Amino acid sequence: MTSRPPMAVPQRQPQRTLSGSGLSQSPTHQRTLSQQYLPQSPIRKSESFGEQSTDVGDVAQSRFNTLPRRGGSRLKLELANDGIEHPGFSESPQNLDAISANKVFTPSRVMSVNDASDAGDMTPRTSRCQTTDDDLTPLPMPPRRARFVIPAKRSEPSSMSTSTSTPLKKDARPKPFVLETPSIAPRYPNMGKQEPTSKTTTKEMAARARTDPCLGFADFYPWNGGHPEDQFSDSIIRLGYFEKAPAQSTQEPASAKAPLFPALKHKSGLHTLSTIFTGILNQRRHSGQITSASTFKPPPRVTLTDTKREIWLKDLANPAISLRRLSRTIPHGIRGKVLLDQCLNKNVPTDRAVWLAKCVGANEIRAFKRKGVNGTFVMGGEAKWIRDWTVFVEQFVETITNAFSENDWKTKVTYAIRLATHLYAEHLLDRDHYMDWLVSGLENSNLSKLPMWLLIIQIYWKDLLKLRRHGRRLVSAILSHHSSIYYHPDRDILLPLATRLQSLVESLLLTTPENFINPGTWTKYRDSLAEPPGSNNEPRARAFKSIDSRNDYLTSSNAKSQPALRSIVVQLLDSIHRTPLDNAISKQLWKTSENKLSIVRTVLEWCTSLYRPGIAKVYIAAVLLRSESASDIDVTRAILDFLDADPLEETARKQLVYHLVSELARSGHFSIPQYIQWLIARGGLLYPVETSPDGPCVTRLLVEIPIHSLNESMRNLRATLLRRACYSVENEAEDMATALSYVKRTLSVPLRFDDPLFYKKPMGLKKLSNRIELSSRSLKTTVSSWLSNDFISGVAQNLQSAQGGMELPKPTFETVRTLLEAAQDYTMLENVLKLLAPSSNTELLACCADTVNLHLPVFAATGAAKSLFQTLYERLKTILEEQGVGARPLLASLANLAPRLTGLEDVAAQLQNDLIRIDRSSAADASSPLSDNMATQLQDAETELSEQIEKLASYTSADRPTMERLFYAIIKKLQAYWGKSDERQRLCCILLTRLRVFDIHHFNELMRSWVQHIRKLANRPPIGQLFPPLVSSGCLSLAILFATASRSQPQATQFQPSAAGSSSIYMQEILQMLMMPFSPSQVMTSEDCYRFRIVQDHAKREHAKEIMPLIRGALAEYSASRNQQTSIPQPLDDDDTEAQLLELLRGLVLVDPNAASQTLSLKGPDPKLAALIETWTTKLLVPRGGGGQKSFEQVLELANEFTLPFCQVKLSLNLATDDANGPEASEKLQLQFELLTKAIDNAIDANNIMWTGMLPSLSTEITQHMRNRAEARFLDIIPSLKNPPGDPLIGKNIHMAENLLTVVDSIFRGGSGSKTSPLSGALVEKLADLWDIMASRNSEYASLKTAVLSHWLPLLFSYLTLYTSPSASAIDMSRLQGGEIRARALIVLAGLVQELDNHPSTNLGQQAFDIALALVDSLPDDARLQCVRAVKDATADPRIRYLFSFAPNPAEDFMLAHRDKPPPGIQERRAIAMGMGMSMIPERLTPFVFRRWEILNEPTPNVGENDTSLSLTLFDARKI
Questions:
Q1: pTM of the predicted structure, to 2 decimals
Q2: Taking Cα atoms as reference points, which of 1101, 1177, 1202, 1186 lies closest to residue 608?
Q3: Is the CB of residue 806 less than 8 Å from the CB of residue 840?
């Protein structure tokens, strides 16, 4: 019969012990399979070592609650577990009594050392109780008594009891857990019994305490299963267990229903219950009050010798010595830095070091009160002492952390950081100063000290991030270090630090996003925080996107309306046109709006605008429409909708559309089948006018589309539609065939015998180019396609074939290039350049480089500029190795092209150095320009001059006298050939080029002086016949030309009598030379003309600042010459020159409108010149309109996104005065102000706000005047509860406010003189009025509240964002006046943040909070403290505390109650006794000063009844 095991103890087969003794069994620990069959350790130990270390391990496991390790084989484990049997059950009944069983398994039983021989296997074993779940490990509880079978105790074996003299073998078996009494546990009193006289050991005392209920240890009474509360009875089950039986009269265990229920049923029961609870609350309030001031006295300080002080400090470092003993004699002279150093050197425990600091600090602070001065000085002195103490702690920590070379640095750093942290936690430091030191240390830390600062800063992480003034700086510092490592060249070495910073940044992004709301910092470090593509961290991505949008709201323009978006897109497109190599602008373009169709429409309008010159805009638009960002847009449909909405009556605009569509159709982005289907759906073509050149663009497009890209079916369908409109497709095909035949004849390509042009004379290249230029787009694309895909491709294939072929001659390439430029098909020209790149002809490759240089904006827009340059650069390297000096033409062209490409500055410098080196070497080489062949073309004098230069070229350098002699000799010959169209003039330019190499700096000085001499000549040929060959050959640079062209300021504004004859029109001639095209002649070859075109284009695009004074001087010359009525013809009288000047001005206005305004605002004495300038500016604004004066209202009406720069020039011209310092200047300026103000008011009323973009460019007085007026009108129409507007006026006022805000925004963000203005008081008042409306609960204002939520608050918040932009934040607002106004605005915003919590559907609450965050950063400290005092008692919102950077002090709520003695009436005493009359006692509350320095655990040697710094009644403490 097997006994039933106890509950929760699984049954287990009995096992024998290792010694074979079966007298008693011990409870075994249940092990899992994985623990029972652990593999043997690979490091085997000896049996003796294992037996000796078993007890040690078991004891350690018992102390630290760790699981025992059972090593060895399976057999050893089974032998170790053999004989372990639970006494509560066995296979057969045994003679074991309950007492002996309990003695064996009771943890409180402590075996004596003398009983070791009789113990057998009763040695305490380590508890091995463990379940399958490690987290739910049960405590080692003793077993219950056996309920059925009491096993009999077995007799001891004879071998264990007989031999006592032989040493016993140490039992290494696991022992059960025994609860040991701590040696320092206090004992219970003896309760009147006599203590034993003999000395007893702690172990004996513990054993006695467990058996004697009258003797025990405090808080140590282990359960052994036999206590009285373990005995269950009927009364214990019903009433519970009592140590002492309650008196019979008490009603505590009885139910309260009988006495209370009848009272509650009475009609006054509720009042009675209320009275009871009121009395309870009053009693609670009475008990929780502080009724007396603190009587605390800090431990006194005495003067000790150095020896005694050292002994005292050593005693302080000894935890065994009580602080009460040390508090009797605290030595003087231990304070500040000395105190901290002594605690570190003596290794004083942290709590004792804090105690010493409190004792010293309390005495130091009380020393200020004993001086008998006023309270203000006491408070100031106390604050100063705490500040100095904080500085000591900061210096202490910083000194220890920097001394990393010491051996025990780690121990000292750990102690210093721990001590400083305890001082901080005890509020013994100036927290603001300490936090500021922490953040400053992190900001100024280098990478070597950054890990230590990160370690320190994370201790105070939460406190720093709860305050705006510290949290924002902390995040900025971490982002700065993260960005510096992110872009560090040795980032792989700093990878651990970068990983740590990355984790910190990610945690900050998720937990405290408000610390990232800082537009300036976010804009600077945003790119380094962007998540890499492919990451799947959704929470981080959402947090990053939210922070990005919140910062973007504080920096972007106020209005996201369609006109504002169009203006932004046009500005970005203009930027791409000026710097086409910047790919970031195109990416930013597509991010301006989610409405991609609106962006596409704006791109189409910009591409077809007549106010944007050049053909590069077509290719920019084509590249943008082909980009991946526009992949989800139906480009064909967008273009057709654009053509359907805009009639495009101007021929130039139509040609731009045809060009764009042909480029998109060639790449497949414009679907011609879809277009034909769209035409058929509209009814097709019916009338001849629809296909005429002047017809509608949407139908004429069918004629202009490229035919060569259509398949046969599409061609037939197109022909069918065109025939319905009486358009002859056959004549079109004949014209194309004829054009191709003329092109073939020009290129010397053989024609067939049946060709009509076989026997005709070839057409000249210029005439053929003009005819192609005037042809349709379809003919142009057909010709250019043949030139690229058939002619040049065939030449390239022959050149690359195995047999080899003849390379394309340079004149043939120039012909092909001229024809492609006439067709304006730069895609095919790009293809031609790529096909000819493998050529070995250096002159041909040089022409290719010059082609890229001239059309750089187009090739940069298509993205081929850098690739073509790299291809030609690689060819140059190869040719330099093969031909040496023969590669000079290509080297010169690439050296001229490289500086215009961004990112190739080093390559450009290398090419320039190589060019100079080649020019200086091998002067007598046959390929040199001064070869014998060229020298023989000169006459005798020139031959002698050439020989002298050849002789000079044999030296590495030349002396200046020789160089000057040769220079003036060549110049003399050059001036002799000037104006005679003699080819020797070009040879003189070549001689100057060779001479320039020997000393470039001195040559430029000589050239400058000679140009100044030419400038003063009164009788001379035109400048256009002298300077272009010099400029083209490189002898005369643009810098010298511009430096010598401009006169001084007085000369530029008035006529000089000394400037007579040709010298009076010098600047006009220079301007005309830089604008007009040149044709090949005897002086300039076609290659020279092409290079001079490059110089002209380079001057227009990259020397706008130098051309502006040149235009101004030319206008002054023109005005002065006309007033003098000279007989010399004026270059500006030429119609072609005037047209070119207008085109030049149009480009310069787009580059720099302000400089153009200053140039054209010249007011001279010549009224004819003023009228001419007025006509020019009107033509710039209205190309096809009449000239004349335009009023302010007319200029504002003409303003749109594309005419804005020209309207600005026109407006500046109208505002210009003849004499700014004259007596009538101020009156005239005031009149102009009034006219402009009236025109702007009328434009705003007419909903015309497109002109706002030109306001920032006006003068400071005008912009400030306009801004003040717009702000005043904007604030006047904001509603308030005092004057609520009517319902009909709400919509009108909102629309007017939007227009006025656009005006203010344009002036504020664009101007430079209005950014430093502080917030106005009227703005804060209007913000407070809106707060009143939102807080109003009156139903009459429901519609007004809705309007405020939907319109007025967003508008006012948008206005406030003008003060949160990075440009405004960069200004130190704390130095400006108006800090109190900003503080009032922040208080109102804080109120709005809480009020808008009632409207969670809107995002206005977060916007208000973000604006407040941006404004509070520049708030002075005194104004911030005023805000703290205003909101501290009004709200407990953590957002407001974070905003104003103040933390709640729990000690500030303590109040001291002063009670007057109540009258000794019987009723009052009865009320007091009942605890319900506390409110009747008069009391007065005053703040209770809670002194952190006086919270000591051991205050004084003599402890009184209540000698603490705070009354113990607050904790309901009682004395026992």
A1: 0.65
A2: 1202
A3: no
